[in-house]
Amino acid sequence: MVTTATTDSQPGERCENCNAMTPHHVTLEIITESEEDSNAAFSREPYRVTECQQCGTTSKQRANNL
Ligand SMILES: [Zn+2]
User: What's the CA-to-centroid distance between 53 and ligand 1, angstroms?
Assistant: First the structure.
């Protein structure tokens, strides 16, 4: 798994837990997913991982369109 840290200069994003715009730490992770029904095996999907710097809640979101 490859983790690429981005800069911390991201603007605030909405945190569902805080219910407010808060600073977030944003990283991209490439997660290898296996497909059970296929011998062809693996797809590597980019996920955008955001961590609220206020409460620590993380969320992952597929980022195929990046
Ligand atoms: Zn939060």
Answer: 7
